């Protein structure tokens, strides 16, 4: 996982560097973090993220990949990654239509995967140099596969039993804010709801970012994911606290949501 995280960051650097030639249409944000503790209980954790945005005339394209890994006493106790692609078409300067694809693979959530295609509308409520607030709502089709997990005393998975996949219609809504307090400090927060008859998944995240240079920053973040109907024996929520290094290609008019 550490090699994968480094690969994501290096790839982000490469893409960000290529995008520098056209700062008016590109924005990107790459993040990587790692921690290790020793003593009576050895633990290690890693997380990585890469988000990119690109504008072509009335279209805005968004792509993102996130991943995390955790281990205790040499056994894997956390492992997840998700990816998304979204295309926005500007109806007005603030109103847009979107189509989106999402995929989530969280090994300890009780779901082998959750994948979705959706469409809807979004609106940029605030669009200034310091603050960007966007909300969107849509409908889609989701497919998920529950699984039964057996864990040992440390929390590592010893066996899995995959259940039949389920498909349902879902309501998909989110709100995102990016606010700069000053030239050095900003907050990035989001809240997503994905609800249908088979499960409601909510994801909330917040990060405080402090600039070290024009491109590099440190970020302290917190993420909470909840599933309303996980399989029996699996907890309904999981949280993650991170301290990470951020590499960012800024664009005051184009934040990579």
Topology:
Elements: H1 2-19, E1 26-37, E2 43-56, E3 59-72, E4 75-90, E5 95-106, E6 111-127, E7 131-151, E8 157-162, E9 166-180, E10 185-195, E11 200-211, E12 216-227, E13 237-249
Antiparallel strand pairs: 1-2, 1-13, 2-3, 3-4, 4-5, 5-6, 6-7, 7-8, 7-9, 9-10, 10-11, 11-12, 12-13
N-end to C-end Cα span: 25 Å
Low-confidence stretches: 1-21
State the CATH superfamily name.
monomeric porin ompg
Shape: flat
Rg, Cα atoms, Å? 19 Å
Q: Mind telling me which CATH architecture this is?
A: Beta Barrel
| Alpha-beta classification | mainly beta
Secondary structure: number of strands: 13
Average per-residue pLDDT, rounded, comes to: 85
Structural overview:
This protein has 257 residues and is mainly beta. The chain is built from 1 helix and 13 strands. It has one domain (2-249): monomeric porin ompg (Porin). The chain is 7% helix and 68% strand. A hairpin with a 4-residue loop joins strand 10 and strand 11 (200-211). The longest helix has 18 residues, at 2-19. The chain is flat and about 50 Å long. The model is unreliable at 1-21 (pLDDT under 50).
